[in-house]
## 1
Amino acid sequence: MSLEKEIQESLPKHAKFYVKNGMHGLGCFASRFIRKGERIMVFKGPLITYAQTKTKEHKDHYFQIGPKSFQGKAPLRRRPVNHSCNPNAGIIGSETLIAIRNIKKGEEITFDYSTTMYNDSVILRCNCGSRQCRHIIKEFRYLPEKTQLKYMKIGVVPKWLRLRLKSGLRHDSL
Ligand SMILES: [Zn+2]
């Protein structure tokens, strides 16, 4: 069975999204109209350490959920939500994806990966095609101030990241 099918079949029946191959590999697409502010999904996966984010298993599938916590790849429960520099969704709390504007049925669901990146030296390339495309995805603190403020205002910058930014603390002991 293809990975696309496997993930699709692991989803709950009434999931607001489906998984298919899109422009940027596997992605999540709205299975119906999703209203701004609506919860779309909760990311679930094993808790891993920073060192584990470098392993082959988790390398391309983790995201940061706390100053020193990362969520790794969840086999079959993977939610391949791609990045966009002009996203239609964002993360609240540390693992819940919500729509930050109305999303049409069939539209790809995306969030800005920088909103969960802090003290992570990984630099990703972006080719999302939006007019706002930054071409490079780095930690939140490197975002243009205007963009940082926009995400803060919408409420899609996790609390742990906001606190870290405020304190200016780096966690070199990861
Ligand atoms: Zn982009």
Note: The longest strand covers residues 17-22.
## 2
Amino acid sequence: MSLSILASITSDMARELAISQGVCVRPILRRVLDRDTGTESRVPIPCGATREAVCPPCARKARVLRMQQRAEGWHRDTEPEPADQLGLEDDQHDQDDGEQDRDDHDGSRRVRSTRRRSDAPDLPRVAMAARTVGRVFVTPDGKEYRPSMFLTLTLPSYGAVRGGVPVDPATYDYRRAALDALHFARLADRFWQNLRRAAGYRVQYFAAVEPQHRLAPHLHCAIRGAIPRAVLKKVIGATYSQLWWPSFDRPVYVHRQPVWDGSDYINEDTGEVLPTWQEALDELEQDPDAQPAHVMRFGEQFDMAGIIAPSPDADRAVRYLAKYLTKAITDPLGDQDEPHAAREAYIDRLHAELRFLPCSPRCANWLRYGIQPDQPGPGLVAGRCSSKAHDREHLGIGGRRVLVSRDWSGKTLAEHKADRAIVVREALLSAGIVAPEVERMAADVLSADGLPRFIWTDDNPDPATYTQVILASIAERQRWRAQYEAAKASAGPVDNCSATGPDARTTGPAHGSASPDDQPNPGLQDRQSGVSGANPQDANAVSALDDRAEGPTIPNRGRPSPRPPTGRTD
Ligand SMILES: [Zn+2]
Ligand SMILES: [Zn+2]
């Protein structure tokens, strides 16, 4: 491409090209100075967005990784290493995708733990086996199989909905819909606890919270092992979650706001200090007539299917699970892109409800109900809580979109990423192609003087330069893909299984070498995905290539601290 053509490429064109080639459309640019050679270069770091509207290639990449994690845990027939021995985060609940507030269930737990034990549903208790894998079934002719399940859980009706809008807006229960959406993850947590009790083994799941057309969240779950329909039905019916929070039925501060006096929120007119979160909980606990602030249950409808893998059904289900992960809750479903007045009005109405309901003990909205949020500080204003659950775009589903149990695949998301890098490395090495100098720019590479050799700084080039950086990324990616294709052709098909088998972490050829690939930094490894749906069996390998395609895996690219493997907000 000649310079004059390059110059005429607009940023819009570059964006389109980047999308078609699976290259990040809004990379963060950094400069790296090599103190030994005095040369400086520019390094684009993919944005890592998880939403398609923000960056389609990065979102696609994130989704492919999730699909791999999902597929790997679903039909396991051996026990994964226990999560605590792998150093996975020790979480009373389950490993979430860290997307946001693991909001303290503390407040409600504290109250529940004393007096109100009515939380335990009426379910038969069966002996609990230590296993996490499903049972094996044997056919009369001796064939063994180990089915898994695909389950969809829905919330109850808040009023009839037709064409994506309430039939009767006057009677539709917006408040309940809003509260159920805000606290959906709690109900799901409770469901898994109950299911394990009733099914008699340590049921593992990979679940995605997704919006229905009526905008209520529902939960698509891949479950390891088969559980009889009657048991599921019983558990769904018996599961409920109570929110033991102070009452937020009546707004107290509507037109004026409590003010911060340096240590508390007070009523400006009277000087009266608002009750603290702890005081409000104490009062709740001492009130014999207290009722939970909100009670949630699932709807009557649920959907389950047994899945035997490998099969086209199993593959389809994995893809289906990932379908909405990259969408915003309010994104138009299907093809109907044109604005729809009634639909917009419905979203507005639901959003108006969500805006002022409390999302967590620390939510600024407590001020509206005359209570100081937990751990308050200056600057809190009801209606302006920073949790995205209140946004019009998220409609209550602000936090965990992916809920994964701790012993699902026995790996962290970071380890799944590392697996994919190993696949590519194998293909390249076995074809005699030297991986790029991945160590080259690592922040822990030292010069002779003992100081870091590479110095990283921020970079904010003008738009034209930015566009050229993106174009360069595209070119580099194409070069890598060509090399990779050549490597595959000469070495035979890439064995995807080598990266997905239980031993991948310990048997990969890269392991034990001095390459930094041994411990890739998960947060920085986010390359783009250019996986095309047309070639699904290449998905793992191609996206693994993408881990390398745009640049080396660098343990610490000059960031002050590595980003966590997940938990991006975009
Ligand atoms: Zn991106
Ligand atoms: Zn909030």
Note: Residues 77-404 form one domain.
## 3
Amino acid sequence: MSRIKNTDGKLGLPYGTFPTGWFQLAWSDEIQSGQAVPLTRFAEELVAFRGASGELHVFDAYCPHFGAHLGYGGCVEGDEIVCPFHHWRFGPDGRVVDIPYSKRRRTANRLRAWSIVEVEGIVWVWHDALGRSPLWDPPPAKLVGRSVYPGRRLRYDDLRMHPQMMVENACDATHFKAVHRARVGPEVVTFDTQGPIFRHELAWPSGGQMRNELYGVGIAYGHWEGVFSDMGGACGWYAVTPVTDETCTFFIEEWVERRPDDPPTPPPGAQRYYDAQGTQSLPDQVIWAHMRWTPTPSLTPEEAPIFHALHKWAKQFYPTDDTERPARSSAAANAGADRAGVA
Ligand code: FES
Ligand SMILES: [Fe+2]
């Protein structure tokens, strides 16, 4: 079970934990078959490895024997990983399956296996400070049956921010003029919540629209229409994942839609879109790095409805002392081979 972290210090968030939910661990192709990759997420050291079957596994990194980090020199054999220090071998559920030099071939010690799902080239990982198994489904596939040009990825590491800042930013209609230099700002058209999902739509007088679906506070799916006249719509995943107590990685992957009459290569508008979007989050990042999150902001009448709804919705992602904890047996199960259903 994760320790409950105190993340309420310098960033000003009033919550004592990293948020609960699905987050982006990595892109799938960053972890190739036979590779063991060290990762830091949620201030925990992890090792991700892809076995011969192609299945991805994510474990706590430190070997229960003498504490070697399996991401540095750990060897993937079949669907098992071998510790570099004394060659203890761990199976796909994190259990010790062999101790090569001992008559004791197994031990009750095991590596915690994290719940992961791979969807359209993204690895979603479940995090809960209380060690609860996934409480809701991971974000679904979005590109099935759609025609899009090759996507474009951006990644920003070591950002001093908190995931909630990203989802608040997505709802913040009034910052588009100030921060993103929009000639005219959008208005909030609709918003609603459905369990861990928050949907909202912003619209510009010019006809442009942005529809967002927030899957917890770590992941946003955005859909744009009417950005440039010579391109179709565009969509993308925007994901912020805690790395240390104060820093996150921001993953962005976007696609421009290819309409039936569009050429096989992306029209100029698509490149202009990628260029424009490529710099859009930079001024946000400067503000996030230096701001102090304010639990009771001075909201104007225009801002109040969506931000009140968003803050109320976001509370579910932060366990408190009153949150029911998993029974010991289910916590132990979560520490083992528990895996989420595949979307
Ligand atoms: S530290 Fe891993 S086998 Fe000894
Ligand atoms: Fe922004």
Note: The chain has a mean pLDDT of 90.
## 4
Amino acid sequence: MTTTMTTTTTIRVDPIACDAYGYCAELLPELVSLDEWGYPVLDGQPVAPRLLALARRAAKDCPRRAVLIEQSPVPSPGRDGTDGAR
Ligand code: SF4
């Protein structure tokens, strides 16, 4: 059986680079909230396809280039609903 792969996209913030400007939370409130000091808090969940453009914009517009977009391969479900593994 062949296992096919898809990718999942997540965002994270480089805490060293971030200066707590808060633009990312303004652009992507669905995924980013701010703590009491203005630093972003992320839930770590994959970015929904409908939010990908906003996530890329948050990364592009971050003045510190602290928003990082990461893509990871994940096995896609087989036609029978399994992950293709035996
Ligand atoms: S926009 Fe960039 S610098 Fe500002 S809070 Fe978000 S990650 Fe930090």
Note: The two ends are 9 Å apart (CA to CA).
